[in-house]
């Protein structure tokens, strides 16, 4: 029996609920691109003290003594003044495949190509869904992308430049003010899109690791595989797409296929799709022949790779083994949420050390990183003043405490702007003043998104492990210590967690969201879940040793004080 990361019982299937397409399958693209020159960061063996460099999968022998997952370890200082990142979207005319669950840039109220905000999944079991209807349209109609400096109000032409009426919003005629506010709102909403960003902040190390893989393996025609993991909204897809665009010219000789596996009807459909794209026949064995025949290197990117789960994981095994076939010319990049898909879900890979992919984990964004991302967008729209900086900080703190999901943070800010815009429209013409989005709007959206619980919780500075997740881990430890079983029903865990939250005056999440947080913890390799149709009967257990929890949480103080106090009454 192959050993898993923590020697917990091996889960035979990927624990992600299937997300199925309602959109027709998107065709993978062969990329053609622009140039890029980057320093080559070395691919290093997996280090447990740093989240980003590529690293070979740990051997089975090392798995029983699990070091804290990389994402749980101290992040590099958040980008207060991030170095200028090369823009990644201006030339991104080639639209990369999107998941059917994601809205496009256009749907998102902006025309930026390649937008992947996630849509709701039907089940609360999704780690992506935190009780938030992301399907709701962000704006009522398509937006015009006129730069603010070029916008002209009809009234403006009639008003001499330099007139105090133009400079002082309070003195503007109501129609002028409303028009100006409308376009300001639109440009801010557009800047807060969750499509492919123009600048990727706080992901320099991860980008360097991906570039290094492309340079050292793909461009050197060395067959290899890379598995990229990370919670939703941590920039995995954006980073990879950005680099593929950046290195388009260098990769011109490489046959590049990017497939979002959520577009597939079944996991086996991947073989049909690849055969079609590579213009080969003969099914799986035909593909295998093609990939081992002389020819250019093939770079296959499988986003949302966890969708390829199948009975006995034969599809995933087959694909992960392709690069290691004799004379293979395949480089594979797989992307999914689970930190340990390759060693927990695919134990057979452990038995074949030469087939182990390099690993790259994207940790959740810290409060400061989220704030930087939002502020950067506002700066881009020349609208720093429109969203109060305290509101931005508040949103960043709340989101980092729960999930560290940039998509969610941007969505919340955009909704707050929409709320302020709606309020502005209701104003009578004699109510003047520059429209601003402040704490009240953000608090309101947050409480709609996350419920009232967000009101009082705090997220520590530089936090890389969201507070709510930490509390859940502490509660599971407490319950396990107080009982006989190592497995705890979600209902029981939620009950203890709610009591702990009220004792500590932290707002608690509901049971549905508690399950979603448990799934995020599962994707971090800390919890394991045995699903049940009834959420409260889902069994939760620790996948790491108790003694490793402290290390994983990186918060000895919190853990110590909660454990010392015992089960909350
Ligand atoms: N570092 C960043 N800088 C700027 N914007 C970002 C950054 N990270 C994420 N975003 C924004 O969040 C959006 C979602 O990111 P992305 O699609 O890359 O997440 P993901 O990790 O692939 O999530 P999932 O697992 O749900 O697919 C991006 O399209 C972008 O708008
Ligand atoms: Mg993605």
TrEMBL record:
Pfam families per the UniProt record, alphabetical: AAA, Cdc6-ORC-like_ATPase_lid, WHD_Cdc6
Biased composition, class Polar residues, residue ranges: 1-10, 27-37
SMART domains in the record: AAA (SM00382), Cdc6_C (SM01074)
Location of this chain's protein in the cell: Cytoplasm; Nucleus
GO molecular function terms listed in the Swiss-Prot or TrEMBL record: ATP binding; ATP hydrolysis activity; DNA replication origin binding
Domain AAA+ ATPase: 222-358
Region listing for Disordered, in residue ranges: 1-173
Family the entry assigns: Belongs to the CDC6/cdc18 family.
Protein name: Cell division control protein
Organism expressing this protein natively: Cyprinodon variegatus (Sheepshead minnow)
């Amino acid at each position: 029996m192959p050993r898993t990361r923590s020697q917990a019982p091996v889960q035979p299937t990927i624990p992600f609920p299937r997300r199925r397409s309602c959109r027709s399958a998107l065709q993978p693209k062969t990329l053609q691109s622009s140039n890029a020159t980057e320093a080559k960061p070395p691919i290093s063996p997996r280090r447990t003290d740093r989240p980003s460099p590529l690293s070979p999968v740990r051997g089975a022998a090392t798995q029983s003594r699990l070091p804290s997952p990389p994402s749980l370890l101290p992040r590099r200082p958040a980008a207060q003044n991030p170095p200028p990142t090369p823009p990644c979207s201006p030339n991104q005319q080639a639209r990369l495949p999107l998941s059917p669950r994601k809205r496009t840039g256009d749907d998102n109220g902006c025309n930026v190509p390649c937008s992947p905000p996630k849509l709701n999944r039907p089940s609360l079991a999704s780690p992506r869904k935190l009780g938030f209807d992301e399907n709701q349209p962000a704006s009522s109609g398509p937006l015009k992308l006129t730069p603010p400096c070029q916008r002209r109000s009809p009234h403006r032409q009639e008003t001499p430049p330099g007139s105090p009426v133009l400079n002082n919003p309070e003195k503007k005629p109501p129609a002028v003010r409303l028009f100006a506010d409308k376009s300001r709102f639109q440009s801010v909403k557009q800047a807060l899109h969750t499509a492919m960003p123009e600048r990727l902040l706080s992901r320099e190390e991860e980008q360097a690791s991906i570039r290094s893989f492309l340079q050292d393996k793909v461009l050197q025609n060395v067959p290899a595989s890379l598995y990229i993991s990370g919670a939703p909204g941590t920039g995995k897809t954006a980073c990879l797409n950005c680099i593929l665009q950046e290195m388009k010219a260098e990769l011109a000789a490489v046959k590049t296929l990017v497939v979002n596996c959520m577009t597939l009807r079944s996991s086996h459909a991947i073989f049909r799709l690849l055969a079609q794209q590579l213009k080969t026949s003969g099914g799986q064995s035909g593909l295998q022949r093609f990939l081992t025949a002389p020819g250019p290197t093939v770079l296959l990117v499988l986003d949302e790779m966890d969708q390829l789960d199948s009975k006995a994981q034969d599809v995933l095994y087959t694909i992960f083994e392709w690069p290691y076939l004799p004379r293979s010319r395949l480089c594979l990049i797989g992307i999914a949420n689970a930190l340990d898909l390759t060693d927990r879900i695919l134990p057979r890979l452990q038995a074949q050390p030469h087939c182990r992919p390099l690993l790259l984990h994207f940790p959740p964004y810290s409060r400061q990183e989220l704030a930087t991302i939002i502020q950067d967008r506002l700066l881009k729209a020349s609208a720093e003043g429109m969203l109060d900086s305290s509101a931005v900080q508040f949103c960043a703190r709340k989101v980092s405490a729960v999930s560290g999901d940039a998509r969610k943070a941007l969505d919340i800010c955009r909704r707050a702007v929409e709320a302020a815009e709606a309020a502005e429209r209701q104003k009578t013409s004699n109510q003047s003043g520059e429209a601003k989005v402040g704490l009240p709007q953000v608090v309101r959206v947050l409480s709609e998104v996350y419920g009232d619980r967000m009101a009082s919780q705090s997220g520590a500075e530089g936090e890389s492990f969201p507070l709510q997740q930490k509390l859940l881990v502490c509660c599971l430890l407490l319950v396990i210590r107080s009982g006989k079983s190592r497995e705890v029903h979600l209902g029981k865990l939620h009950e203890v967690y709610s009591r702990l939250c009220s004792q500590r005056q932290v707002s608690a999440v509901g049971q549905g969201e508690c399950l979603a947080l448990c799934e995020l913890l599962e994707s971090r390799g800390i919890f394991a879940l045995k699903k049940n149709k009834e959420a409260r009967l889902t069994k939760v257990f620790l996948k790491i040793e108790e003694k490793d929890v402290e290390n994983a949480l990186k918060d000895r103080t919190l853990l110590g004080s909660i454990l010392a106090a015992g089960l909350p009454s």
